[in-house]
Write a structure and sequence with these properties.
This protein is an alpha/beta fold. The protein has one domain: 3-Layer(aba) Sandwich (Rossmann fold). α2 packs across α3. It has a 6-stranded mixed β-sheet with strand order 4-3-2-5-6-7. It contains 4 helices and 9 strands; from the N terminus they run αβαβαβββαββββ. β5, α4 and β6 form a beta-alpha-beta unit.
Length: 185
């Protein structure tokens, strides 16, 4: 059961890092890069649920080439502030064989979840795999983790983040900005 008092403490101890206008500009830049790089490839975009849904929803409306969408749900955080073992919740229903795949993530943190999803796509016979993250958290990657994405919206300091798809215990994904959370007192 979620401790709503703890959720309130998290909100009380957060500070805005990036306002909506900054995030929208970052998404526009990612779209501009993708329009150059992916034109003519007819890619399949995989939204990493639940966090990337806002980023991907806004991003794909700015792309000028044919694409398809699906989703994948693999998580290490499960709403918590630190990661654990990878849990595969849902795999895509689309055939990945011989396709250009673009994995859309909310955040590149340790890099392990993204590395596992890339491996999965390659095992399914993807022709090529690109990665995108709204946020690249400037933190050391774990051994075996992805170091950087092909497309990055913004770089953010090494703090726990909420808003714009990023959550704590499933809350705060709906915030129209990105906030850093300090330790609750």
């Amino acid at each position: 059961m979620v401790d709503l008092k703890e959720v309130e403490k998290v909100w009380k101890n957060s500070t805005c890092l990036h306002k909506q206008e900054e995030i929208e500009a970052a998404i526009n830049n990612v779209a501009k890069e993708m329009n150059k790089e992916l034109a003519g490839k007819t890619p399949l975009f995989l939204c990493v649920m639940n966090g990337a849904v806002i980023f991907m929803g806004q991003l794909i409306t700015k792309l000028t080439f044919p694409l398809q969408i699906d989703y994948i749900h693999a998580t290490r955080f499960r709403g918590k502030m630190s990661g654990g073992d990878l849990l595969w919740v849902t795999k895509p229903t689309s055939d990945l064989k011989d396709r250009t795949i673009v994995i859309i993530e909310d955040i590149l943190d340790a890099g392990l979840t993204l590395a596992s999803i890339i491996d999965y796509c390659n095992q399914q016979g993807a022709k090529e795999v690109y990665t995108a993250a709204l946020v690249d958290k400037q933190t050391p990657r774990e051994k075996g983790g992805v170091e950087k994405t092909d497309f990055t919206g913004m770089y953010v300091e090494d703090k726990f983040l909420i808003g714009y798809g990023l959550d704590y215990e499933g809350f705060f994904r709906n915030l129209p900005a990105i906030y850093a959370v300090e330790k609750a007192e």
